[in-house]
Structure to design on (130 residues):
């Protein structure tokens, strides 16, 4: 792990407030995740990747954009690890790194399905604009 990656890892752990050493790899989080099939790195793998310093792999993962933020994994985890918060922390780190080049609200209308509920858009915007 490079010094930069170490800094990013510390930032993610601070944002998410997750203790990755508590994970016992039981897989309950992934088993209950509604987006499991479309994720390349599964929720139960996030704590291990983080513990082993594989930060770039997590930041390049499709999972951080596929996670629905439903918190089911957080409720089901028997060790209170909160993998969903870890995924959210990695996503926030990526958004912060991209700075001004991430998606702006005015770009969104042309990209969305007109049938999509407005509450979903508001929820996503609140979550991504941190
Ligand atoms: S994060 Fe929790 S539910 Fe997921 S594998 Fe680790 S201990 Fe199990
Ligand atoms: S918060 Fe994300 S990772 Fe956790 S169960 Fe929901 S979709 Fe899956």
């Amino acid at each position: 792990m490079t010094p930069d990656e170490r800094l990013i890892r510390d930032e993610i752990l601070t944002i998410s407030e997750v203790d990755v050493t508590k994970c016992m790899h039981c897989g309950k989080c992934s088993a209950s995740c509604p987006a499991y099939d479309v994720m390349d790195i599964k929720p139960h793998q996030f704590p291990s990747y983080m513990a082993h310093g594989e930060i770039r792999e997590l930041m390049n993962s499709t999972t951080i954009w596929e996670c629905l933020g439903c918190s089911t994994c957080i409720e089901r985890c028997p060790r209170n690890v909160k993998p969903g918060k870890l995924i959210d922390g990695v996503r926030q780190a990526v958004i912060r790194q991209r700075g001004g080049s991430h998606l702006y609200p005015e770009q969104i209308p042309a990209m969305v399905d007109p049938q999509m509920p407005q509450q979903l858009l508001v929820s996503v915007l609140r979550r991504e604009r941190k």
The chain has a mean pLDDT of 88. Residues 83-98 form the longest helix (16 residues). The radius of gyration is 15 Å. Helices lie at 3-16, 28-31, 46-51, 55-59, 63-66, 72-76, 83-98, 118-128.
